[in-house]
Design goal:
There is one protein chain. This protein has one domain (about 10-230): 3-Layer(aba) Sandwich (Rossmann fold), CATH 3.40.50. About 40% of the residues lie in helices and about 20% in strands. Helix 4 (about 65-70) links the parallel strand 1 (about 55-60) and strand 2 (about 75-80). Strands 3-2-1-4-5-7-6 form a 7-stranded mixed β-sheet, with helices on both faces. The chain has helices spanning about 10-20, 25-30, 35-45, 65-70, 85-95, 130-140, 160-180, 190-195, 200-210; strands at about 55-60, 75-80, 100-105, 115-120, 140-155, 215-220, 225-230. The chain is α/β, with parallel strands linked by helices and about 240 residues long.
Amino acid sequence: MSRADLSKQPSQVAAMFNKVSTHYDRTNSALSVGNDALWRVATSRAVAPRAGELILDLAAGTGTSSASLAGTGARVVAADFSEGMIAVGRSRHGDNPLIEFVQADAMNLPFESETFDAVTISFGLRNIVDPKKALAEMHRVTKPGGRVVICEFSTPPFAPIRAGYGAYLKRVMPLLVRVVSSNPDAYGYLAESIEAWPDQKTLCGWMRDAGFTDVAYRNLTAGIVAVHRGRKPAANSVPS
């Protein structure tokens, strides 16, 4: 088995990411034409980490996003379902005392309720078999008044951009992955999962249903990616 499918069975998804973990960051940078670094900066700014805060970075992969968050002095729990990704992350960032790597299932997080000042996930929510359950777990482990930030592929609102992006996913990306990836078949799932993922407003609705308030999003790269933000209501507050 070299790739997952849209059933998103956890064992398949984990096995797929285990196989691509070593060259994952290099492949992402090539496929995004370097935009992955800009998306990471925008996500970190949306999280707005502060020194001393405790942040959960879900689907942390090799820890690149976690290192960015920890650069502010925040403590970061880098959690991922893939043992291979966690192993690479520990090898690269294991000497950073502000980052702790944990293998975890986003639908059943091994943390106490109301633990984290902020919870974030980048390009991982669409890989979860039940994203609404993951959002409920994110809400559970966030402190009252805490924030959630989700960076994910999305739907470009401008039709010509949408058409061009669809053509890139179907025709250009398969050629690129055969050059830059050690396991090109696995990236067929990437295009399929992006095309099947709901648009920005739908994800906003899911976040509100999970209990988050002040939900909003910002499009990046013409809406190819969107950063969604929300907040867990403070204790004794009235949801808006």
